[in-house]
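Q: How would the structure tokens look for this protein?
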Amino acid sequence: MTATRAPVRSPASTAKNPSKPEVPAVNMLNIHNSNFVLKTPHKCVHCCKEYPRKAYLEGHIRSAHTGERPFVCAHFENGFVLETMSTEHLKTTHGMGRVGKERLPRSKREVVQGQNLGGFNEET
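A: Here is the predicted structure in token form.
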């Protein structure tokens, strides 16, 4: 018994989808980079570091170059470089959450929305 081999095909006959043109790999990399790789348009004038957001650059300049801490805790007079750091400090140290209307967690919102809330959401 002799073994049979599969016929050898030429590269032209092995096209995956002739109706769809192949995109070169270089173009795919450029598309990927433009969609997913962080752009860093904000550059520090002091040390040339680059940041994707203006707020990040401002925080870098304050902490690394000027030492400025404009967000101050009223209780301890601690200074913070970023407002988010100050907010986190207030939440964790002083138990101060959101300013304004408190919101229920998502899991609780769905349960409450279906209930009669003392005259609200009543069908008339």
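The first helix runs from residue 25 to 36.

The mean pLDDT is 74.

Upvote if useful.
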